[in-house]
Amino acid sequence: MLALLLIAIITRFVFLDARPMDHDESIHAFLSYDLLKNQRYTYNPAFHGPFLYFSTAGIFWLFGDSDFTSRIVPAVFSLIALFIAFKFERWLNSGAYFFAFFMIFSTSILYYSRYLRNDIIVLASFLVLIYCYFRFGEEIDERRKERYAYVGALFLAVMITSKENSYIYVFIIVSFILFYGLYEKRIEYLRELLLRWNLKKLKVILISSLIFSVIFSSLYTSGFSDLEGLRRATIGALEHWFTMHSANDHSKPLPYYMALLLRYEFLPLALAISSIPLFYRKLKEGELTKLEVFSVYWLLMSLLAYHVLSHKVPWLLTHLVAPIAFFSSIYSKESFFEWSKRGFRVAIVVVGIIYLAASLHITYINYNDASEGLIYIQVQPTAVELSEKIIYRIENGEHGIIVEPNNDYWPLPWYLRKITVPFSRTYYGNFDFVVTSETNLASFKGWQMEGRYEIRPGYYLVLLEK
Predict the structure, then answer these.
(1) Quick one: DSSP state of residue 453?
(2) What is the DSSP letter of 311?
(3) Omega prior to 50 cis, within 30 of 0
(4) Are residues 351 and 410 in the same domain?
(5) 53 near 24, Cβ under 8 Å?
């Protein structure tokens, strides 16, 4: 375990700042920086939950603000996911090592563990939540039982305050608990749940609710300074994403995720498919454990939810590969040896090496290639070059302005956060130089072009001077 943990730390933190801050990353980092410097934050579902901003602002306060420190929070939560993957050894046995392997080297999980987004936080928190749920159910010692409830409440709050797709996870775990309870005990389950109360049960529910509600309300209301944030965090968040779904925001065809899985996550997908006969056999023989039933339920509900939603983006692939890897890890030992009997052991090892090489290649070498489906709108290194030229000019007494009619200038606000330079939709005043989009050049006749900089594939900003 220690060796794998060391590998995970290296893969997460080495060259963490090599890749330029992406469009969305730069927005998240800038809002966190603004929160720290100006003590202001207002929840907006378009930018997801507050946990990422408050935690990243805390990192900035401790270690300073930089590309490296911006990505620490998701990197740390990816280590939490790995730690919990090992904890599942009590049920998965050696399968936990397969699951841990995917938590480290899954192409999508590794890439977005080094990326300032909320998805790894959500995934890690859900893994902790389901671990606490299963440990709570089998624990005999009452004090330990209570601890699992409180830790579960804590990470449920972290998950809900991180991103709106957490409600998908909440539906999955709550509906599973209800359906499995009804399957196992029929109507007696509802009687136990609703009618049988004692002081211990009441204590656990009250303390867990307090833990959750304090974190949820304080973050979404910015320390109770914006009480309207509670409405936006619940009704408003659901309204926003239903609107985005209806508007086909980031809409992709139905096979979008399957194409990404086949291209980047072919190993866990292949292991999951090879595990289906083993699962079916245990289903027919009535030997399925509760965890096995949950693994299938989690996998099927995730595939359904993310394929139905029109909003399809590559970072959401992490929420599909995790249940695929979890399901395959339960049967991986048996399926591996069954494949071996048929002479496929070498083939599996070769595919594993190819999978590992592909994951490392896109994360550390090919991260600026727009042809990679896992990469969405990766900012190019020339954006950093442009930022450095603007900083140099401002520090040497020149006055400049960034003019873009659609405010399409990210990641410049993040890279220019330490200097004073105006951002505007239109030109005004008298400036020595202007940065604008190439499509807006007609508004600056008579200005000379100093340079043309690719901000993201196919989109350019230009530096103009009199």
Answers:
(1) E
(2) B
(3) no
(4) no
(5) no
CA-to-CA separations, 215 to 12, 130, 157, 258, 410, in angstroms, rounded: 27, 19, 6, 36, 31
Q: Within this chain, do residues 392 and 252 fall inside the same structural domain, yes or no?
A: no
Angle (nearest 5°) at CA 152 between 147 and 155: 130
In a domain, 439, yes or no: yes
Based on the domain organization, do 310 and 457 belong to the same domain?
no
**Does 186 share its domain with 266?**
yes
| Short-list 370, 367, 346, CA closest to 358 | 367
**Among candidate residues 330, 364, 398, the one where a domain is terminated:** 364
Q: How many CA atoms lie within 13 A of 108 on its CB side?
A: 28
Query: pLDDT tens string for the chain (466 positions)?
Result: 788 889 999 999 999 999 999 999 999 999 999 999 999 999 998 899 999 999 999 999 999 999 999 999 999 999 999 999 999 999 999 899 999 999 999 999 999 999 999 999 999 999 999 999 999 999 889 899 999 999 999 999 999 999 999 999 999 999 999 999 999 999 999 988 888 889 999 999 999 999 999 999 999 999 999 899 899 888 888 777 777 767 777 788 889 999 999 999 999 999 999 899 899 999 999 999 999 999 999 999 999 999 998 889 999 999 999 999 999 999 887 766 555 555 566 777 888 899 999 999 999 999 888 789 999 878 999 999 999 999 999 999 999 999 999 999 999 999 999 999 999 999 998 999 999 999 999 999 989 999 999 999 889 999 999 8
356 with 423, same domain: the answer is no
Are 409 and 342 in a shared domain? no
- Residue 374 resides in a domain: no
Q: Could you tell me the pTM of the whole model?
A: 0.95
Distance of CA 318 to the CA centre of its chain: 7
**The token pair that represents 394 in the structure block:** 């401002």
Q: Are residues 147 and 113 in the same domain?
A: yes
Per DSSP (E only), the strands in 24-128 are none
CA dist., res. 80 & res. 420, Å (int)? 39
Residue at 370 is within a domain = no
Indicate the helix (H) or strand (E) that contains 275: helix 266-284
Spatial contact of 323 and 123, defined as CB atoms under 8 Å apart? no
What residue numbers bound the domain in which 446 lies?
381-465
Give the H or E element holding residue 87.
helix 72-87
CA distance 127 to 155: 9
Q: Are residues 343 and 453 in the same domain?
A: no
